Amino acid sequence: MNIPQPLRQHRTVLLLASSLVVLGAGAATAAAAIAQTGPFSSPSVADNAGIAENVSATDAGVTLTVQTATFSGTETTLNVQWDAPGYPGASDLSVPPAALPAGRQLTPQPPTVRTGNNTFTIAVAPVSAPGPFTLTLSEVDVNTSGATHQIKGAWTLHLGGPSASNFASLMRTETLSAAPLTATSDNIDVTATRSTSATIIRFMPAAGWEPLSQVTIVQADGKRLGSLSQQQADDGQLVAVFPPTPFGAPVTVDLGQFAQADPSGASFETIALAQSMSRAGVAFGQEDTYFTPAASDVLSGSAGLVEEARFWKIERNADILKTLQFRLAGDFQPDGASLDSAVRVTDANGDELHVAALSVSFGKNATGAVHNGYTDVDVLLPGDATALSHVTIQTGTAAKVIPGKLQVTLKP
After folding, report:
1. Which of 155, 270, 397, 398 could join 137 via S-S bond, C-beta 3.0 to 4.6 A?
2. DSSP letters for 348-393
3. Cα separation, 5 vs 45, whole angstroms
4. pTM of the prediction?
5. Mean pLDDT of successive 10-residue segments in the chain (412 residues)?
């Protein structure tokens, strides 16, 4: 059967406990417990509020105007307004990474961050000296009615730059570090770079680790901060960007929780599906009626792998696909784009049923701890009901939540 690729879907879900108030209270208590005293010097928000530029460049029917620029030791951020009179109906404009000048900012983020109608910001490498500097962009992408135009050109912007009087204070940076954090059998080095615009946390997760929650930091005054962005850098490090924090102060980094592949978690179960359906009074194809296989329905394999099942449907692109959904105990992540690498289902004839959708869910309890959850897998129904007299579910490697709190205090 030829199934269109968009009909295959996979998602990972973090389920939250209903008692989130308890979690909030616990977080506040933990923050207070690690509060430390100063004095510490705060970055100057006034100095780093943005310098007016109002400089324009026009090429190939597109005008770019840098309205303001913000300078720091980790990046230079430009607030840009665009106009594309050469492309009537233009609805969006972005700058591809290759169009940026050489050098890179320490704050990894998409080259173009939209801030409003016809405005965006771009982050480029920090300037090396006070006073005027020139920046040239070599390409912009303009969207018109769903079409993207890749426009080559040379938008050369002659910018004023920071003044010599406040250059040193604007460009100040500080490195924070600590002894490696030991988790399972791996040592994790966590470092931070602090500037007047951001606090940037970097670390390399152990091989096979998958983040389940966001990194947070706790300042010396006990205030907990969430990240402005979190992503994987080209070198594999996880990079979380936070607002600026006071120079000289320690920060406590909560890395969140991770799951790791557990080769021993692979399993299989063959169940007498027709027998289980009959006992629950569920007919073939009867939608949204759950039935739970009993111990007597398990013909072989790991009893308890299938927690429940139901007949269901998936709507995609005006198509309705009839499915049989199994809820499995444990979290089975696919290896790449192949959903079959996570779960395979075969019918009574030994034919493999097509996996159309897979949803992996982790849980989170009232204390904030993440724990293993379940996997929902949808397979397309065979045309012959007798093919479901019994089915075999075979899973790939399970993902297991790494226990404990991964937390480290970084100091300058």
Report:
1. 155
2. TTSPEEPEEEEEEEEEE-TTS-EEEEEEEEEEEPPS-GGGGSSEEE
3. 49
4. 0.68
5. 39 37 27 42 54 93 94 92 92 87 59 79 90 93 89 95 92 94 80 94 86 88 89 86 94 88 80 93 89 92 90 82 90 74 89 89 75 87 88 86 85 96
